[in-house]
């Protein structure tokens, strides 16, 4: 089973540059869509707004004003959380709040170039 998350983007080339800067590879690129490979079981499909609207049954949300979803990438350790978030910010993302840490998790959030909310998360392994 695989998961495909579809996101509307204003400028596909700019979004491809952003996700490339984060270290992700692509699969199945076309003039109006590109698939970001998160891992073997998950892909984020970047669709230009007109193409996305053609699939959507309702009006497109403006991710700069509303939260349509929170996209979370699970990582193995806090250093990877920091690395991914710092790459995102260096590539133009906006940090969203301070890092969050407790006994069970370490996570940081950012908004991508189109305003979509992303989280980089490391869950603590249960003791014993």
From TrEMBL:
- Keyword terms, alphabetized: Dioxygenase, Oxidoreductase
* PROSITE patterns with a match to the protein in the record: VOC (PS51819)
Q: Which InterPro entries match?
A: Glyas_Bleomycin-R_OHBP_Dase, Glyas_Fos-R_dOase_dom, VOC_core
Q: Which Pfam families match?
A: Glyoxalase
Does this entry carry the keyword Oxidoreductase?
yes
Please name the GO terms that the record assigns under molecular function: dioxygenase activity
Q: What domain of life?
A: Bacteria
Q: Where is the VOC domain?
A: 1-123
* Identification of the protein by name: Glyoxalase/bleomycin resistance/extradiol dioxygenase family protein
Query: Which source organism does the UniProt entry give?
Result: Nonomuraea ferruginea
């Amino acid at each position: 089973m695989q998961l495909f998350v579809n996101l509307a983007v204003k400028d596909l080339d700019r979004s491809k540059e952003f996700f490339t800067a984060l270290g992700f590879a692509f699969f199945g690129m076309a003039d109006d869509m590109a698939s970001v490979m998160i891992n073997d079981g998950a892909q984020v499909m970047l669709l230009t707004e007109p193409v996305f609207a053609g699939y959507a049954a309702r009006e497109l949300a403006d991710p700069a004003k509303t939260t349509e979803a929170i996209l979370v990438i699970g990582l193995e350790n806090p250093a990877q959380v920091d690395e991914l978030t710092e790459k995102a910010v260096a590539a133009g993302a906006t940090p969203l709040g301070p890092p969050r840490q407790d006994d069970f998790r370490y996570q940081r959030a950012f908004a991508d170039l189109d305003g979509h909310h992303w989280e980089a998360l490391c869950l603590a392994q249960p003791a014993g």
